[in-house]
Structure formats: C-alpha cells, structure tokens
Amino acid sequence: MATNKRTLFLKRRLRVRNKLRKVNTGVPRLSVHRSNKNISVQLIDDVQGKTLAAASSLEKDLGIVGTNNLEAAAKVGSAIAERAKAAGVTEAQFDRGGFLYHGKIKALADAAREGGLKI
C-alpha cells in the first residue's frame, strides 16, 4: 500500500478514534472536521448515536463566513461550548480525527475550554 498523505491521514484518524473508544466513559465525543476553507465540530453521543450540538464556520449567525484563520476556529469553539451548555453537557472527549493538534484545531479546543467545556 502506498503511503501518501491520504492514507497517513486515515491511519491517524483510526488510531485516534480507537484510543477514544478504549477510554470511553460514556462522555460525548467532540468531533472536529477541517477543510481548506472551513471548520466544523459536532458533539456526538456514541451510546445513542445522536448529535447533541454542532457548530460550523459556514453559519451566518457567527459572522465568520469566508474567513480562513484562527479567529474563525476560536469563534466556532466558543459557539460549541455555549451550545453544549444549553444541551446540558459539561465534559467531552476531543476527537481531532486525523488532523494534527496545532493551528486551527488547537485554537478551537482552547476556545471550547475557555467557554466552559471540559475536554
């Protein structure tokens, strides 16, 4: 199998997801997806298989459409923290997928922590 960026990404994603499954204590999972232009996050309850809350940089009410920077990721992080509080969730496991924990992913996680979400 050829090791290109995509296969390395998929291997990293599976490794992160499997580690989260091993230590799962019934806490919802904060799943992050990043594209070249946008970032989105979901708070997922794996036991019921339902999304409890979600936020994305594509949402018009956040006022960050079209921005591709750390500020947009931070706004999405604070938005998911507010929506998690509204859903009654105070703690979550951070599922970064195959994305490295730096840049926009780190900014989103830090903003969610500042918003009161325990990751």
From TrEMBL:
One of its GO terms (cellular component) is ribonucleoprotein complex. InterPro entries: Ribosomal_L18 (IPR057268), Ribosomal_uL18_bac-type (IPR004389), Ribosomal_uL18_bac/plant/anim (IPR005484). It holds the Pfam family Ribosomal_L18p. One of its GO terms (biological process) is translation. Coiled coil: none annotated. One of its GO terms (molecular function) is 5S rRNA binding. SUPFAM superfamilies: Translational machinery components (SSF53137). Keywords: Ribonucleoprotein, Ribosomal protein, RNA-binding, rRNA-binding. The keyword Ribosomal protein applies. Belongs to the universal ribosomal protein uL18 family. HAMAP family: Ribosomal_uL18_B. This is one of the proteins that bind and probably mediate the attachment of the 5S RNA into the large ribosomal subunit, where it forms part of the central protuberance. Part of the 50S ribosomal subunit; part of the 5S rRNA/L5/L18/L25 subcomplex. Contacts the 5S and 23S rRNAs. This is Large ribosomal subunit protein uL18. It comes from Pelagovum pacificum.
